[in-house]
Request: fold
Amino acid sequence: MTTLITTKWQGITYNGTGFFFQQKEPAMKDGKLGNYWLVTNRHVVYSKEDSTKKNHLVDNLTFRVRAEEKATQKLIWLEMTMSQAELLQKARLLPDTGIDVCVIDICEKVETELAKYDDLNVTICPIEEDNLADKSKIPIESSDDVIVIGYPRGFYDTENLYPIVKNGIIASMWGANFRGTKGFAIDAKLFPGSSGSLVITKPRMEDLDKNGYLVFMKEKKFYCLGIYSGEPLFNRMTIDVNGNQAVFHYSFDLGQVWYYDLIPETIQNGVVPQFEW
Reply:
């Protein structure tokens, strides 16, 4: 469902997080994958060069798919790397550069890589449209529990190849634009590398039937709330250090999350990235 992302820009490696999303289509169609996308942040695929203050598309991006060796049941990660040229063709961004969401069409890449193996069982487990928050019959409100699934500082369970799961609550008005953005705030202590993490409701057994009565399901269900983007930072002071300006920031242990509906919107209305902006 989620993946550790590593990118390279001018020889430097950066970590981030992404998750898989599938539009409403059969998982397999004529032996091929349906509409599979990798969802992450815009700033994960761009790197800012301090000398020019411009954002440059990374040289390459690597994501992982969890697989099991049929003979040994050993878990492995299949690494799949997309070049800058591929990102220029397959990535989609909304024209508004302030929206920190990026989707990448990975169908061709995954199909090509999986065709090389016949000794693996591969599991992708994407988020689907039925998992989006507007499908929840139980109203979502401020102070509700949330789960954030990602790879803080590139950290994860190396034995079972599972990400780190952290909890928090919705810290702003749900459905409203937090501080003028198409997102909301969560109260959760997160770290660099978590950018692009999947944010979901806390899985629960309860749901509402068509008449509005509470019912219990056989399996727990969750809904995708959005994409974690980072921690809002505020300038505290600027001081001179040996002729250089040092800016100290302060925060409130809050996280910025972009609303779930930006995923299908970016797929439908997004444009291919530019090399720099």
Summary: The CA atoms of residues 142 and 170 lie 5 Å apart.
